[in-house]
Amino acid sequence: MGINSMSISDEFVEIIHIINDRIKLPPIEEVFFPSVYHSNLNKKVSNFGAIKLKDGSIGIIYANLTNNIKKNASEIDLQKFSGDNPLELSKNFTSKDNFQKTLALGCINAISQHLLRLSNYKLDFTTDSLGYLQIENDDMVGMVGFFPPLVKKLENANTSLIIIEKRERLVQKNERWKVSLDPSELESCNKILCTATTILNESIDNILSYCKNAEKFSIIGPTAGFLPDPIFSRGVDVVGGTYITHPSLFMELIKKNEKWGPATRKYCLQKPQYPGFKSLLDDSLLI
Length: 287
Prior knowledge:
Layout: H1 8-22, E1 28-32, H2 34-38, E2 48-53, E3 58-62, H3 67-74, H4 86-90, H5 98-118, H6 129-132, E4 140-144, H7 148-156, E5 160-164, E6 177-180, E7 191-195, H8 197-200, H9 204-208, E8 216-220, H10 229-232, E9 238-244, H11 247-255, E10 264-270, H12 277-286
Parallel strand pairs: 4-5, 4-7, 5-6, 7-8, 8-9
Antiparallel strand pairs: 1-2, 2-3, 9-10
Helix pairs in contact: 1-5
């Protein structure tokens, strides 16, 4: 069976197995979930956690996919994962358990960041995922997941916007944009921005089925730290992720629910320039 015939979750796990067979992965150093550190603080709790490997590679986690994820995190000793091979948690990306799946994507992201570092792949820090779409006034833009800052930017661009959401309470409409529960409305869009959460909840294939008319399709977000091979093969053009420049500082900031800017840089992986994870593996073994 070729990788392309697998589900997207199986593809990611298969890629991690191949990487683990060829290079020694650094063990997990720390798993952070916001519920563990902020449950007794009188402040807004972050929706993001992180898995840090011994070499400083970090995979960012979206910890609020369902109400039970933070609850499950608070009921187990996350320190028990310290020293484990991140491959073991990555295997759970095919699980139906949302907590296990969330941990797994964190490990997949951390391993992916490790390989990008190890191979000395030159990341593109100058192109942003919105700029890559080259949005013009006559475009019909689709947005999967509600990104308030990006909505504001697109309003300033004087373009039309359709936002696809799963949360009914967000459904609304104004002169410039509307929020809909119906993904088939993406069929009228020629440029699309999509949250990386669609990888976690496995809705990406369904979303892409409505995007055949799109000229460009970007997946963005803090949790888009994965190697993009499975989504590039499905027609996605660019992945916008977050590169951790100062791992220790990042962990301090995320635990305090403070802005990550001083410890991160945003980057883009574009399909035409991306060599594939096997090429990154070959490069890492030459160093």
